[in-house]
Design goal:
Layout (H helix, E strand, L loop, with lengths): L16 E3 L4 H10 L4 E6 L2 E7 H9 L10 H4 L13 H11 L3 E6 L2 E7 H33 L4 E4 L6 E8 L2 E3 L1 H10 L1
Length: 189
């Protein structure tokens, strides 16, 4: 069974964009307004790069450049590596790791429709791991109940023959049986 999730299921659809001619100062104001840590750089309506907070720190602050004089086009990371909304998250995660990047714009028919980040992928994987943990715990609980029944320890639950609740279930002939049904089984045998 296929359990991989397509990018379209987790991608962020509201992408913050800025033109290549936008100053870093203007870009930071926009990034703060939308509470994001990156901006997709556009040129004539086409995505051409990305600028992250790290780029601003490395290329502007660290080099003591004036944010009002530096353009996004001067510090953007380019070329822009992109993915499709139909790509699987596991393939995208491998691609991100190989390229050592944390965010990838999502293009559909050449148009920017969203982006996916390493945190989006981690969030979905964490959710899947939580679900898998619950399933494992359920199965472990069943195995413990079977193990205790196999060793003739007393268990409580629903008798598999009469359907009544019992605080004294024990395994007989492969079934968890209450005291009355165990007696009937012994009399029949």
């Amino acid at each position: 069974m296929e359990t991989d999730v397509p990018v379209r299921e987790v991608m962020v659809r509201d992408v913050v964009k800025g033109d290549v001619s936008l100053t870093v100062q203007e870009a930071v104001r926009i990034m703060r307004e939308y509470d994001v840590d990156s901006i997709i750089v556009m040129n004539n309506g086409e995505p051409v790069g990305i600028v992250t907070e790290g780029d601003i720190l490395d290329e502007v602050v660290k080099k003591d450049r004036k944010p009002s004089e530096v353009r996004l086009g001067d510090i953007m990371t380019s070329p822009l590596f992109t993915v499709s909304p139909d790509d699987s998250l596991s393939d995208v995660a491998r691609k991100m790791a190989a390229l050592r990047i944390r965010k990838m714009p999502v293009l559909e028919d050449g148009e920017l429709v969203g982006f996916v980040s390493d945190m989006d992928i981690l969030a979905i994987n964490t959710e899947m791991n939580s679900i898998l943990t619950e399933l494992l715990e359920m199965n472990i609980g069943r195995e413990i109940m079977r193990a205790s029944a196999d060793t003739e320890e007393i268990s409580q639950g629903i008798c598999e023959k009469c359907g009544c609740f019992s605080s004294d279930l024990r395994m007989r002939d492969g079934m968890m049986l209450c005291d009355s049904c165990r007696d009937e089984t012994e009399e029949e045998g």
